[in-house]
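Worked example

This section walks through a single chain of length 204. The input is the sequence exactly as stored; nothing has been trimmed or padded.
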Amino acid sequence: MPNGFTGVPPTTLADLLGREQVMDIGIRPLWDAPRVAGPAYTVRCEPGDNLMLHAAIYRAEPGSVIVVESGDLDHALAGGNVCAVAQRRGIAAFVLDGLLRDLGEVREAGFPVFARGVVPIPGAKKKLGSLGGPVRVGGVSVHPGDIVVADEEGIVVTPAARQEEILSAALDRLAKEAGQSLDAWEEQHRARVEKALGGLGFTG
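Given that input, the structure is written out below as tokens.
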């Protein structure tokens, strides 16, 4: 099921799920990564500490998107070697409400990371956070197994209980759009715009 989401852009999912399931614009791809989709493996790190993310790469299932709540913009949650090991273990991507270091290595390896930015200072490994609990990342509540889809358009989280419904609706919408010419779209769009303007009393 999660693999089916790889063909669905975040824009389509956002149309179906609404703003509350879309992460804020501060969490962006750190390089020109392809679209990723997979079940969330949730991590909470204490500010300034990255121990739980480093533990997660040995516990998350292949295909997982590791999603990290940290609340820290002074220390890196991970670097090149951690990303390389995650990649080797089949992790699909990191989505970090925090920072990365060694971006050049990560980009060269082709490991997708979505984060708030880059800093060369590593975090410590002295504090317990949590693994596999609910987290809040980019303003979105994420639970284990929720489907995370991320690319250059943004990051959208589909609740696990709705994945079948949302995937079906998304594929139907994409099929309909694929069969519609730009001329037909423009005609319908113009009619909607003029109707909206007229309803607001605009006559220009």
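What to look for: The chain has six helices and 13 strands.
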